[in-house]
Design a protein that fits this description.
Number of strands of chain C: 0
Order of helices and strands of chain C: HH
Structural class of chain C: mainly alpha
Helix content of chain C: 55-70%
Structural class of chain B: mainly alpha
Number of strands of chain B: 2
Largest sheet of chain C: none
Strand order of the largest sheet of chain B: 1-2
Distance between the termini of chain C: 16 Å
Chains: A mainly alpha (197), B mainly alpha (646), C mainly alpha (77)
Oligomer: heterotrimer
Distance between the termini of chain B: 44 Å
Largest interface: A-B, 45 and 54 residues
Radius of gyration of chain C: 18 Å
C-alpha cells in the first residue's frame, strides 16, 4: 500500500516522483514551522514587556512534571519514527500510542490542573493575561498535534505507511517536536525566569 | 439555477448555519457556567468563528484533507467536467492555479470597489468644512435606522452618531483596500509565478485553493462590521480605543485574521514553488524578474503576518475575557500593541508594493525593446527592501511615547530603504534610456506608476526624519505619501498587469481606446489628489477628522480633491466595463501579443489546462530584447518529453 | 507492499534509537538543572534561556532532522 500523498504514477500537474514531493512537503512544513514560531516569539516578547523581571506564582512541582511528560513524549515520537523508517510497524504503533498518552497527560496537566489551581484568573492583571495566553496558545497546538498523532496512528494501524513512504509520520513528528521546542522556552519563561511576583 | 450547486453557495449556506450553531454553542456554554445565556459580544463572536469554519467545510476546501486523514487516496488529476459551464469552476474549489489566480483577482477588484465606494462617501463629506453630508438623514437612508441604540444585534450604542459613521467608513476604507491589495498580490503570484518559471501548477494545489477560499468568509466578516456598529479606530486598531469600540471591532479583527491566514498559506506555497519547480536550466539568476519580487514578498508574508494574527487575537481575547494585555489601567501596555502591530504592518506595505515593482521591471523591457538594466541588482534590491523592512517598524511610533533614543536607529534604518528602492529607479531609467518605447495601455500605466511611486519615494524621507515627522505626523501629508506609494506600487502596476496579461487570461483583446481613456482620466486626477493631500498636510490639515475649521482656508483644495476622487472612481468603472465587455466579445488576440520572450507567451492563449504540454528548457537570458539569435527558452528541447523538471 | 511484520534490527536502526536515548538523557539532565537553578536562583533568566536554546538545538537536529531539508539525495534505508 502506498501513502495517501503518493502519486500513483499518472500524469498529474505535479506528477513528480515521491522523492521530489517529499522534498517539497518537507520544505513547506518547515516554512510553516518557522512561520508558526513567530507567534510564540511574539507571545514571549509580550511576556518580557508585561512582566519584565517578575514571574507568575505557579506550582513548581506540577510545572516540572508536565514538562517531563512533554519531553518524554518527544522521545517516544522519535522512536516511533525511527521504527517506521525501518519497517517495524508494531513498535511504531506502540511508541506513537505512548506519545499520544503522554501528550494527553500534558494537556490535562496544563489545562485541567494548572489552570484550575493558579491563584489568578485570565483577567487578573498582566500575570493572568500572559500565563493564560502563553499556555493557551501552546495547549491549542498540543491539541492539534494530538489529533495529527491519532490520525497517523490510525492510518498506521491500517498499514498505510511503509519504511520507504511514511511522510505522514515524519510530518506529525516534526510538528510534535516543534511543540516540544516551544515549551522548552515557555517553561523557562513562565516558571523559572525572574522572581515570583 | 446552476449557482445553487456551486461550492460558493454551499459555503454561504454553511456559514449561516455555522454562525447559528456557534451562537447556540456559546449560549449553552454560558448557561452551563451559570451565566445568562445572552451576552451580545461573546455569542456573536462565537457564531462568527464557527461560521467561518463552516464556510470552508461547506465550500469543500477540506474535502481532500479529510480524505487523507481517513487514509483514502485522492486524485491529483485536475478534471474538468465538460457538461458544466466553465464559469462554474470559478465559483467552486478548483486546484488549477490559473483559476485560483483569477478568483483572487476578481475578489480583489470587488474589495477595491467597496473600499473606493467608502472613500467616495467620506470624500464627499470632506468637501465641506462642517458635517453636511454624512448627517442623520443620509445615515437613515444608507443604514435604515436613526443613529443611536437599536435592535437585538446592535444592543447599545450602535453607530451612535454621524461622526462615528464617518470614522467607520474611513477605517473600513483603509482595511478593505488593504484586504483587496493582499488578494491582488495573491492574484499576481498565483496566476503568474507557475507560468513564468515553467511549472504546471503550484507546489501545493490544495493549500492554494484553501488560501483563496479563506478570504471569502474573511472579507464577508470584515464588511459585516458595518452592521455591528462599525469601528472608529482607523485601520490600525490601536488600543485602548479598540477595546471600547463597538462590536464591529471584532469583525475587523477576525476578518483580517482570516485574510492573514490566506497570506501565510499562499506565501509558503509561492516559496516552495519557486525554489523547487523551476524549468530545466532556469537558475535563480535566469528567472523572470517578477518571480524574484514574488519570492521576496512571500518571505515577508509568511513570517511577519503571524504577528498581526497574534496581536489581533490578543485584542479579541482582551475584549472577550478581559485579559489586560494592552490596558494600562490593569497592568497592560498599549505601546506593546503598536510594536507588535507595526512589526507586521510595516513589512506589509512592502508586501503591497514589491509585486507591483516586479511588474514594472517585468513589463518595461517588453515595451522598451531593451534588456532590463542591471537584472542582478534589481533581483537583490527586492530582497534588500524585504530585509530592511524588518528593522524599521518603530518609525510609525515617533510620537507614540516610545523612548526618544530608540527613534534614532529607526530613523536611519528607514532612510536606508531608499537605497535598494533607488536601485530599482536607476534600473528603470536605464532600461527606458534610448529604448524604442511603445505606448500601449499597459506601458502607460507602468510609466504612470514610476512617476507616482517616485513622488511616494521622495515624500518618504520627510516622514522618516524625526524632526520633520513630529510636525507632519497625523496630517494629510502622511496620507498623501501613503496613497502615492500604494497607487504607484500597487494600483497602477496591477492595472498594467491586468491589461498586459488580459489576452493570456481570456484569449481576447481589451479595447485600447477605453484603456487610454482610463489612463488619461486616472493619472491626472490622481496627481491632483495626492499632491493636494501633501499640500493640505503641510498647511496643517489633520488626518482622520470629519470636520475642519472653515476659516483655515482648506475648502477649495478639499473640493478639488473630492472631484479628483470621483474622476478616479469613474475611470475605474471604465476599466471594469472594458474588462467585462472585452472578455465576452473582444476581438481574438494573437498568441504572443506583445512579442514577449517570456515562456507564457510562447503557448496558446488562453493558456491550456496544464500550462506546458512538455517541459521547456532555458537556454539564454530572460530580457535580451533586441539581441539577434539569443532565445530565452527552447520550447521543444531535443529530448522530446524530457524527464520531469525539478 | 513490502509489509515486513518484524524487521531485522539493523545497525543504523540501533544507532538511530541510541541517538534518541542520548538526546533524551541530555534533555532530562539539563531540564532538571534548569529547574534547580530556577527555583534557587531566580534572576538567572538569561542563562536559562541559553540552556533552553541548547536543548532546542538537539531536538531540532536529532529529532526533527533539519538536515534532511538540505540533503539533495533521498534517504534510503
Amino acid at each position: 500500500m502506498t501513502e495517501p500523498q503518493a502519486s500513483s504514477g499518472h500524469h498529474a500537474p505535479a506528477g513528480a516522483s515521491y522523492a521530489t514531493r517529499l522534498a517539497r512537503n518537507r520544505l513547506g512544513l518547515w516554512l510553516f514551522v518557522v512561520s508558526d514560531a513567530f507567534v510564540f516569539v511574539g507571545l514571549f516578547i509580550a511576556r518580557m514587556v508585561l512582566l519584565g523581571p517578575n514571574r507568575p506564582e505557579l506550582l513548581q512541582g506540577l510545572g516540572l512534571a508536565v514538562t517531563a511528560m512533554l519531553l518524554v513524549s518527544s522521545f517516544f515520537m522519535n522512536r516511533a519514527e525511527v521504527e517506521m523508517a525501518h519497517g517495524n510497524r508494531p513498535a511504531f504503533l506502540r511508541n506513537i500510542m505512548v506519545t499520544l498518552v503522554l501528550g494527553t497527560i500534558f494537556l490535562v496537566g496544563v489545562v485541567g490542573v494548572e489552570w484550575q489551581l493558579a491563584p489568578f484568573g485570565p483577567s487578573d492583571g498582566a500575570e493572568g493575561a500572559v500565563f493564560y495566553s502563553m499556555t493557551g496558545f501552546h495547549a491549542f497546538h498540543v491539541f492539534t498535534g494530538l489529533i495529527l498523532l491519532f490520525v497517523v496512528w490510525n492510518n498506521g494501524r491500517r498499514g498505510l505507511y511503509t519504511a520507504e513512504q511514511h511522510w505522514g509520520v515524519e510530518a506529525a513528528a516534526i510538528y510534535w517536536h516543534f511543540i516540544d521546542v516551544v515549551w522548552m522556552f515557555f517553561y523557562v519563561g513562565l516558571y523559572l525566569m525572574g522572581t515570583p511576583a | 439555477m446552476r449557482f445553487f450547486s456551486t461550492g460558493l453557495f454551499r459555503g454561504l449556506v454553511a456559514q449561516v448555519a455555522g454562525s447559528v450553531v456557534g451562537m447556540a454553542f456559546v449560549m449553552a456554554a454560558r448557561v452551563l457556567m451559570g451565566e445568562p445565556a445572552w451576552s451580545r459580544e461573546p455569542v456573536i463572536v462565537g457564531g462568527m468563528i464557527i461560521g467561518a469554519l463552516a464556510f470552508l467545510v461547506g465550500v469543500g476546501s477540506f474535502n481532500d484533507w479529510f480524505k487523507w486523514a481517513r487514509g483514502k487516496q485522492v486524485s491529483d488529476e485536475i478534471t474538468v467536467d465538460p457538461n458544466k459551464p466553465s464559469w462554474m469552476r470559478y465559483f467552486s474549489v478548483d486546484y488549477d492555479h490559473k483559476v485560483i489566480g483569477i478568483q483572487y483577482g476578481v475578489v480583489s477588484m470587488l474589495l477595491l470597489l467597496f473600499g473606493g465606494t467608502f472613500a467616495m462617501f467620506f470624500r464627499t463629506e470632506l468637501a465641506t468644512a462642517g458635517i453636511d453630508f454624512l448627517n442623520n438623514e443620509i445615515f437613515k437612508v444608507l443604514l435604515g435606522y436613526e443613529p443611536g441604540p437599536v435592535g437585538l444585534l446592535s444592543g447599545g450604542a450602535m453607530m451612535p452618531n454621524p461622526e462615528h459613521f464617518f470614522n467607520s467608513l474611513m477605517s473600513l476604507h483603509g482595511i478593505v483596500m488593504i484586504a483587496g491589495i493582499l488578494l491582488g498580490v495573491g492574484a499576481m503570484s498565483n496566476y503568474l509565478v507557475p507560468m513564468l518559471i515553467g511549472a504546471n501548477d503550484m507546489a501545493f494545489p490544495r493549500l492554494n485553493s484553501f488560501a483563496f477560499w479563506v478570504n471569502v468568509p474573511g472579507a464577508l466578516i470584515l464588511l459585516s462590521s458595518l452592521l455591528f456598529g462599525g469601528f472608529d479606530t482607523g485601520w490600525v486598531g490601536y488600543p485602548p480605543l479598540a477595546l471600547r469600540a463597538p462590536l464591529g471591532m471584532q469583525m475587523f479583527l477576525f476578518g483580517v485574521y482570516l485574510i492573514g491566514i490566506s497570506s501565510i498559506a499562499g506565501a509558503i506555497n509561492v516559496i516552495v514553488t519557486i525554489l523547487t519547480m523551476r524549468a530545466k536550466g532556469m537558475t535563480m539568476m535566469k528567472m523572470p524578474i517578477f518571480a524574484w519580487a514574488a519570492l521576496a514578498t512571500a518571505v515577508l508574508q509568511f513570517s511577519a503576518t503571524q504577528l498581526i494574527g497574534l496581536t489581533f487575537q490578543l485584542v479579541m481575547l482582551e475584549r472577550l475575557l478581559g485579559m489586560p494585555f494592552f490596558d494600562a489601567t490593569a497592568g497592560g501596555d498599549p505601546i506593546l500593541y503598536q510594536h507588535l502591530f507595526w512589526f507586521y504592518s510595516h513589512p506589509a506595505v512592502y508586501v503591497f508594493i514589491l509585486p507591483g515593482l516586479g511588474i514594472i521591471s517585468e513589463l518595461l523591457p517588453v515595451f522598451a525593446r531593451k534588456p532590463l538594466y542591471g537584472y542582478k541588482w534589481v533581483a537583490f534590491s527586492s530582497f534588500g527592501i524585504a530585509l530592511i523592512s524588518f528593522f524599521v517598524w518603530a518609525h510609525h511610533m515617533f510620537v507614540s511615547g516610545m523612548s526618544p533614543y530608540l527613534r534614532i536607529p529607526f530613523m536611519y534604518s528607514t532612510l536606508l530603504v531608499a537605497v535598494p528602492t533607488g536601485v530599482k529607479f536607476f534600473s528603470w531609467a536605464g532600461t527606458l534610456w534610448q529604448g524604442k518605447i511603445k505606448l500601449a495601455t499597459p506601458m502607460l500605466f507602468v510609466l504612470g506608476s514610476i512617476i507616482i511611486f517616485l513622488l511616494g519615494g521622495v515624500t518618504g524621507p520627510p516622514a522618516a526624519t524625526i524632526s520633520t515627522d513630529l510636525h507632519i505626523h497625523d496630517t494629510y501629508f502622511v496620507v498623501g505619501h501613503f496613497h502615492d506609494t500604494m497607487f504607484g506600487g500597487f494600483i497602477f502596476p496591477i492595472i498594467a498587469a491586468i491589461y498586459y496579461w488580459f489576452p493570456k487570461m481570456t484569449g481576447r483583446m481589451y479595447s485600447e481606446r477605453l484603456g487610454k481613456w482610463h489612463f488619461w482620466l486616472m493619472f491626472p486626477a490622481f496627481m491632483l489628489l495626492s499632491n493636494g493631500m501633501l499640500l493640505l498636510g503641510l498647511q496643517g490639515m489633520r488626518r482622520r477628522v470629519v470636520a475642519y475649521d472653515a476659516d483655515l482656508g482648506f475648502g477649495p483644495l478639499h473640493v478639488a480633491l473630492t472631484i479628483a476622487g470621483f474622476v478616479i472612481f469613474f475611470s475605474m468603472i471604465l476599466f471594469a466595463i472594458n474588462i467585462i465587455r472585452s472578455a465576452r466579445k473582444g476581438p481574438e488576440a494573437k498568441d504572443n501579443v506583445w512579442d514577449s520572450r517570456s515562456p507564457e507567451w510562447q503557448i496558446a492563449s488562453p493558456a491550456p489546462l496544464h500550462n506546458y504540454a512538455q517541459p521547456f528548457e532555458v537556454v539564454g537570458e530572460p530580457y535580451d530584447y533586441g539581441l539577434q539569435n539569443s532565445p530565452y527558452v527552447n520550447m521543444t528541447p531535443a529530448g522530446g518529453s524530457a524527464t520531469a523538471s525539478h | 507492499m513490502q509489509n515486513k511484520p518484524v524487521a531485522p534490527v539493523s545497525s543504523p536502526h540501533k544507532y538511530e534509537l541510541r541517538t534518541g536515548v542520548w538526546v533524551m538523557l541530555l534533555l532530562a539532565v539539563l531540564t532538571f538543572g534548569e529547574f534547580i537553578v530556577g527555583v534557587i536562583a531566580p534572576p538567572w533568566g538569561g542563562a536559562l534561556l541559553l540552556v533552553a536554546a541548547f536543548k532546542a538545538f538537539f531536538v531540532v537536529k536529532d529529532y526533527m532532522h533539519i538536515g534532511r531539508l538540505f540533503s539533495t539525495e533521498e534517504e534510503k534505508h
